[in-house]
Design goal:
Blueprint: E1 5-8, E2 22-24, H1 27-37, E3 47-50, E4 55-56, E5 61-62, E6 65-71, E7 76-82, E8 99-103, E9 115-117, E10 122-123, E11 130-131, H2 132-145, E12 153-156
Antiparallel strand pairs: 1-2, 1-3, 3-6, 4-5, 6-7, 7-8, 7-11, 8-12, 9-10
Helix pairs in contact: 1-2
Protein name: Imm1 family immunity protein
Pfam family, one: Imm1
InterPro entries: DddI (IPR025680)
Length: 160
C-alpha cells in the first residue's frame, strides 16, 4: 500500500486556498515538490502527513507529521518526524512515539542553518542536514509505508 501525502507549503501559482494541502500520490510528484522547494524560499517549513493514517485527539489531527527544511543553493535538507501521540508522555521503552530529527554525516561551520521554526529561529540540530537525494528517499519511504523512514538515521529532538 502507498499513502497520499498531504503537503502544506507556500505556492501562489496553484488555485487553492492557503490552508488546503497539495496531494502527492507518486514518486514523480514528490520529486516535483522537492524541486519546487529548492527553487522557492518557504517562510515556514512545509508540513507533510500521510492522509490514510489515523487521526487522533479532540481536533482530529493526524497522528504523524513531518516538517521539512531545505537549503536551496546547497541542495541539503532536514526532516523532523513527530510520531504518534508525541505530545503525550511516552510509555517507558516505547520507541514508536516521540520527536526525531534526521542525523546526517554533514556538520561544520560552512553548512547553512536549517530551521524547524522560522519565526522563533529554532534550528535543527547542526548535524541534521542530508543531501536532497537522501531526503527524497526518506519521504518516498514514508509515502510507501506511512512509518518513520528507516533509510536515514534519526536523533531524538526536544523541539517540535
Amino acid at each position: 500500500m502507498s499513502y497520499t501525502l498531504d503537503v502544506w507549503y507556500y505556492r501562489d501559482d496553484l488555485d487553492r486556498p492557503a490552508n488546503e494541502p497539495v496531494a502527492v500520490t507518486s514518486s514523480s510528484e514528490l520529486k516535483e515538490l522537492l524541486e519546487y522547494l529548492l527553487a522557492h524560499v518557504q517562510p515556514h517549513p512545509p508540513q507533510i502527513v500521510a492522509r490514510e493514517r489515523p487521526r487522533v485527539g479532540p481536533y482530529d489531527e493526524p497522528d504523524t507529521l513531518i516538517k521539512i527544511a531545505v537549503a536551496i543553493p546547497e541542495r541539503l535538507g532536514a526532516l523532523l518526524f513527530l510520531s504518534p501521540l508525541s505530545w503525550e508522555q511516552p510509555v517507558d521503552g516505547d520507541t514508536a512515539t516521540g520527536v526525531y530529527a534526521t542525523r546526517g554525516e554533514l556538520s561544520g561551520s560552512g553548512l547553512p542553518t536549517l530551521y524547524i521554526d522560522q519565526d522563533t529561529k529554532t534550528p535543527f540540530p547542526a548535524d541534521a542536514g542530508l543531501p536532497i537525494d537522501r531526503i527524497f528517499a526518506a519521504l518516498e519511504e514514508f509515502r510507501q509505508t506511512g512509518e518513520r523512514p528507516t533509510c536515514v538515521d534519526w536523533q531524538e529532538s526536544q523541539v517540535s
